[in-house]
Structure formats: structure tokens, C-alpha cells
Task: inverse folding
């Protein structure tokens, strides 16, 4: 009896008896972007958890549009294969700096890189008259990668140099969740990056612990 390639088991075809190789497993669906951290720079940090959310140009376009970096409907035709890596590089520096600030440490190399990115020119806004006579925001020219990175870096600089905003930075209390968010809740009592995600997991775990205690 013939054997298939090592590591690729074969199954029998009921109609012919022939041995056939199964279809390769479909890749897991991409993680949907989240925009609940309170600032665009923190939303960028969230794209690394629980898996890579900026693994393609299409995913990056969706994140840029959803983050509010550009007005709705802005074409991003210039986005190319180098863009995701550039955003991931800025994300790594932001992660080092934000976590250092939360821990009372310094991350001067990351800070220098973010400052350098922030020196660029962000996308220039442009007011355009809509058909109903109202004004709507557009961009004067199609945004390039450097301009969009600049906007994110400037948001981080503004956040971390604003004492009131800086005091609202929190790391999620969910198990194994590294996300950082801006706590704007009443009383500053927000504990999770998302009540629907980590908060719900905590409530389920709490219920299971109570049930286990009630029924040993």
C-alpha cells in the first residue's frame, strides 16, 4: 500500500477506494481591530494582542480608517508592503515607552525614536463644502506613511506630557492581557480594556469559582 508524504495523512475515497490527501486547513481568520483604548497611540498598541492585527496592507488600511487618523472615505491607494512594518516598528517603540512610564522607568532610546517620527508633518486637514452646504473634513493631499506615523507619534507625545491624561493610563487587569487604555470612567474605576472582552471573562471565571465552592 502506498503511503502519503510524511506528516500528511491520506483518507480513502469511498467511490474509488483511492487514497486522497485532505485539503489543507484554512488559515485562522484575522483578528478584528479594536478602538476602545481612548487614544489612537494606545489603539495602535492593541494591534499586537492577542495576535498580529497588522499583518497585511489590507489590515493596516482597515485600522487606519477605523482609528480616525483619516476622515471616512479617504482613499489609501498609496499604502504598500512597507507600511505595516513601519507601523509595527513605531508600535514597538510606543510599547517600550508607555510601559516604562507606567513602571516609573525610562526608555530613552524609544523616546528618541518617537520624537524623531513626531518631527514630521502630519496629514493636512482641508474643509470641503458638502452638497447640503455643511463643511466636512477632508485631507488636502493623499496621506503618506510618514505623515500618518507622525500623527500617531504626536498623539503619544501629547498624551505622555499631559499630567492629567498621563494619570489616567491603566493596564488591563484581565488575566494575561497586556493592553493599556485611558481610564475616562466616572470615579476612575475602569478595570479592563473592554468590559465585553476581559470583563466578561472575569465575570465568567468568578461565577465558576462560586459554583465550584457551592458544589464540591
Result:
Amino acid at each position: 500500500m502506498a503511503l502519503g508524504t510524511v506528516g500528511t495523512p491520506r483518507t480513502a475515497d469511498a467511490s474509488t477506494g483511492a487514497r486522497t490527501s485532505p485539503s489543507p486547513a484554512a488559515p485562522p481568520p484575522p483578528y478584528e481591530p479594536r478602538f476602545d483604548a481612548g487614544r489612537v497611540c494606545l489603539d495602535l498598541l492593541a494591534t499586537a494582542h492577542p495576535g498580529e492585527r497588522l499583518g497585511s496592507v489590507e489590515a493596516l488600511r482597515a485600522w487606519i480608517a477605523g482609528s480616525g487618523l483619516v476622515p471616512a472615505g479617504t482613499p489609501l491607494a498609496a499604502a504598500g508592503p512597507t507600511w505595516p512594518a513601519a507601523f509595527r516598528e513605531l508600535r514597538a517603540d510606543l510599547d517600550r515607552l508607555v510601559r516604562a512610564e507606567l513602571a516609573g522607568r525610562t526608555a530613552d532610546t524609544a523616546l528618541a525614536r518617537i520624537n524623531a517620527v513626531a518631527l514630521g508633518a502630519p496629514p493636512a486637514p482641508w474643509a470641503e463644502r458638502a452638497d447640503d452646504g455643511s463643511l466636512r473634513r477632508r485631507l488636502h493631499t493623499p496621506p503618506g506613511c510618514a505623515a500618518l506615523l507622525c500623527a500617531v507619534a504626536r498623539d503619544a507625545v501629547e498624551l505622555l506630557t499631559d499630567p492629567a491624561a498621563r494619570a489616567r493610563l491603566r493596564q488591563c487587569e484581565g488575566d494575561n492581557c497586556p493592553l493599556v487604555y485611558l481610564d475616562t470612567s466616572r470615579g476612575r474605576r475602569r478595570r479592563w480594556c473592554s468590559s465585553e472582552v476581559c470583563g466578561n471573562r472575569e465575570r465568567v471565571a468568578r461565577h465558576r469559582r462560586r459554583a465550584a465552592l457551592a458544589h464540591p
